[in-house]
Amino acid sequence: MKGTQLGPGTPPFLFDGSLSTHDIRHSAVGLKEYADQYGILPPGIVQDANGEASQDLNILYKILEGDRSCGSFPPLGGTKGLWLAMGMEFIASALTGGFFGNAPGKPWGEGAIIFAFNSKLFNSAHMIKQIQDYLKQFKTYPGYHSFEISNQVMSRGWIEYPKSQLDSIIRVSNRSGINMNFESLRTGTIAS
Predict the structure, then answer these.
(1) Structural domain of residue 47, as residue ranges?
(2) Nearest to 58 by CA among 39, 33, 75, 81
């Protein structure tokens, strides 16, 4: 989409339509491994107790141990979340005639839009086949890896952990004083 100046004195608005994102914060073990390897966190992963961005490893360790008093993960979304929220607000405002933002005049936030879909439309054998055929065109897509892992776990009856991930889980649990028998996991198949 091309940037558009909405009026004199307003900044141009540009939304490029790219909303794909991966939230690294969903992988505590991945964060722990990254922190151990590089000695610092990437920007935007944690925030201190005042809500300021931080790369402090101690904040991450405390969050992973369940202590939120020193900081937290920031809200998911960032710039892409902002554009998604603004886009939905524009659509809802246009379709309902309600104002968006804090526009003068009648109270803003009056318009509401609800998207409701008949689930039967998405549950037909034909629709499912179309979706499957479409997804077969891609080697991977968001959610594919998780879907494959889930299928493997269900068929095997156990989870295969990479050795580095298992070692990291054991180190984190030992450091935080969690006394679980993770060593029994070592007796299963471990990928190298």
Answers:
(1) 24-76
(2) 39
